[in-house]
Specification:
The complex is a heterodimer of chains A (141) and B (169). Chain A is an all-alpha fold and 141 residues long. Chain A has helices at residues 3-14, 20-31, 40-52, 66-135. The N and C termini of chain A lie far apart (158 Å). Chain B has 169 residues and is mostly helical. Chain B folds into two domains: 1-89, Orthogonal Bundle (Rna Polymerase Sigma Factor, Chain: A), CATH 1.10.1740.10; 96-169, Orthogonal Bundle (Arc Repressor Mutant, subunit A). Classes of the chains: A mainly alpha (141), B mainly alpha (169). Chain A binds chain B through residues 13-17, 20, 23-24, 40-45, 47-49, 51-57, 59, 61-63, 65, and chain B through 3, 6-7, 10, 14-15, 17-19, 22, 32, 35-36, 39-40, 43, 93, 96-97, 100, 102-107, 110, 124-128, 130, 145-147, 149-150, 153-154, 156-157, 160-161, 164.
């Protein structure tokens, strides 16, 4: 492109009156090797613009936030809590049942020893009966 | 909208979002975080996306707002100082830029422009949006944008010429 034309475009460029197409023309001119020496500063400007445009976002896009993970963690925690409370409750119930069982056993034990005492007394009564029969004759039936 | 479909919609402009965010927030890490955050916001509102005539324009507006919010909160917590002497850990692009000293000078000059000028330079000269599109994104009229853009372009050129002359004498 002619130098005069470029100079005219640059004037417009500085006043922000150029179109995108005209700005592209300027970019192509200043990225080429034969730039007029008195326009050197524009070479840096347009050079910078085109290098800047090459920069990319290189990280992988992450669509699952950390917040959501926390939510799931709390759900898991509450489930664990529920299970442990339930099993703890069960455990206590079992221990209580065992205690009650032991107490009942003890009560039966006492009952049975007392019953046995009664049995001994009854056996002695039988002894009286036998002695009485020896002394008094039994009427015949 | 499924994930694959969403990614297909987002692919063409994710780099633009990243570059605009980097222009405003300066550091690559912050720009990456901003891009990630923005894409995630879009994904969460995926059902509403159909209502917008241009998802890209919507995304760019969101990026602009997000970055301005970040800058505002950073100014409030006095973190701007750290940012003005921020050193980029060399990507291939930066190394490429070091080769051409005056090109990286342009980077510095744009960095020193007011936020609005920075953003308009980025949208027009790098991303090559039309004035009408920029007007819609920034909620300004096209004339105001031309005025701001012209001011930014002139400043960059003048500063560059000044530095160049210093270099000679």
């Amino acid at each position: 492109m002619e130098l005069a034309n470029i100079e005219k475009l640059l004037e417009k460029y500085l006043n922000a009156e150029t179109s995108i197409a005209e700005e592209k023309e300027l970019k192509t001119y200043f990225l080429s090797d034969n730039v007029a020496p008195h326009l050197e500063e524009y070479q840096a400007i347009f050079g910078y613009f085109s290098t800047s445009k090459q920069e990319r976002f290189t990280k992988t896009i992450q669509l699952n936030s950390k917040k959501r993970n926390w939510k799931w963690l709390s759900v898991a925690a509450s489930v664990i809590l529920l299970v442990s409370v339930y099993s703890g409750y069960e455990n206590i119930q079992q221990r209580k049942a065992a205690e009650v069982y032991a107490q009942t056993l003890g009560a039966f034990e006492i009952l049975s020893t007392n019953l046995n005492k009664g049995n001994v007394a009854i056996a002695q009564l039988q002894h009286f009966e036998n002695t009485k029969n020896k002394i008094f004759k039994q009427p015949k039936k | 909208m499924k994930q694959s479909e969403f990614l297909k919609t987002v692919m063409p402009f994710k780099d633009k979002v990243f570059r605009v965010a980097k222009r405003l927030l300066v550091s690559t890490e912050e720009a990456e975080d901003a891009t990630q955050e923005l894409l995630f916001k879009l994904w969460r509102n995926k059902e509403k996306l159909k209502d917008y005539k241009s998802i890209e324009a919507f995304a760019m507006t969101m990026t602009k707002n997000y970055c301005f919010d970040r800058l505002k909160s950073k100014q409030a917590s006095n973190l701007t100082l750290i940012h003005s002497n921020y050193k980029e850990n060399g990507t291939s692009l930066d190394r490429q830029m070091e080769l051409n000293d005056s090109v990286s000078k342009v980077h510095e000059l744009i960095k020193n422009l007011p936020e609005q000028q920075k953003l308009i330079i980025q949208l027009r000269d790098i991303e090559e949006y039309e004035f009408d599109e920029i007007a819609e994104l920034l909620n300004l009229n096209p004339t105001a944008i031309r005025v701001t853009l012209s001011r930014a372009r002139k400043t960059i050129r003048e500063q560059l010429l000044k530095q160049h002359k210093y270099g000679i004498s």
